[in-house]
Amino acid sequence: MAQRNPKVASVDPVWTHICEEARAAVRDEPLLGGFIHSGVLHHPSMERALAYRFSLKLASGEMSEQVLREIADEALATDPEIGQAARADCVAVYDRDPACHRFLQPILFFKGYQAVQAYRIGHWLWMTGRRDLAYFVQMRVSEVFGVDIHPGARIGRGIMIDHAHSIVIGETAVVGDNVSMLHSVTLGGTGKEDGDRHPKIGNGVMIGAGAKVLGNIRVGDCSRIAAGSVVLHDVPECSTVAGVPAKVIGQAGCAQPALAMDQLIDDGI
């Protein structure tokens, strides 16, 4: 099939790969044919598939699937960065999550990926001044996926959130490119203070399960935060922190912790 569409594959290899995997999945499991066709193969582009998934998952008695689909279509058509970030996120999940064996899986099955893509539409609403609607999207994402990302937060490309249960990211948080985090991570404040009060996470950072990063602090590029840590102070680049409160215990151990996903702490680090 790839030989029939070489131009399409060269322009949008991620979407082409997803569609090829979708056709193979239908052949392997015909009972999922309707689900896969409606979620992937019915759509001419990844943007249209993302809009469909957004509207299907977040629809409720309070807001219809049709209205949500119109919102998502407008966001994805107006801001091409949303679709490009979605592709980078899909590749990130495939590359870093050992449970992900196909590009098809995140868009159909992984709530972490789907929650981040819904956040991106909510962030677009926030940035265009439609803040009540952005709050509605945040509410529904939290209810449906168990992921609470404030629409005002700024999140880069190539994000992988594994399992994604109980993720909290506050309003003034910034997350760089190629960041990986596991379940129950909080990027939060430290009290009732207003203004810029949430963490700034650099590029290539890996945040372990259950870690809490609190306050307007900076986590340097390519650092590791060990599972269960409580980080209250700045973290230098290319370092590993662990503990409650977290302290620097050594170097990161590799050039790109978020890509390596190595969560072990060697005695000789």
Task: Please provide a written account of the structure.
- The chain has 269 residues and is of the alpha/beta class.
- Helix content is 43%, strand content 14%.
- The chain has ten helices and 15 strands.
- The protein has helices spanning 6-11, 13-28, 33-41, 46-58, 65-78, 80-96, 104-109, 111-127, 131-145, 257-260, and strands at residues 147-149, 154-155, 160-161, 167-169, 174-175, 180-181, 186-188, 200-201, 206-207, 212-214, 218-219, 224-225, 230-231, 239-242, 247-251.
- The strands form three sheets. A six-stranded mixed β-sheet has the order 3-6-9-12-14-15. It has a five-stranded parallel β-sheet with strand order 1-4-7-10-13.
- A hairpin with a 4-residue loop joins β14 and β15.
- α4 (46-58) runs antiparallel to α5, α6 packs antiparallel against α8 and α8 runs antiparallel to α9.
- The longest helix has 17 residues, at 80-96.
- The protein is globular and about 50 Å long.
- The relative contact order is 0.08.
- Residues 1-9 have low confidence and may be disordered.
Key descriptive features of the protein:
six-stranded mixed beta sheet; LbH_SAT; globular; 269 residues; five-stranded parallel beta sheet; alpha/beta; single chain; 43% helix; Hexapep_transf_CS; acyltransferase; Ser_AcTrfase_N
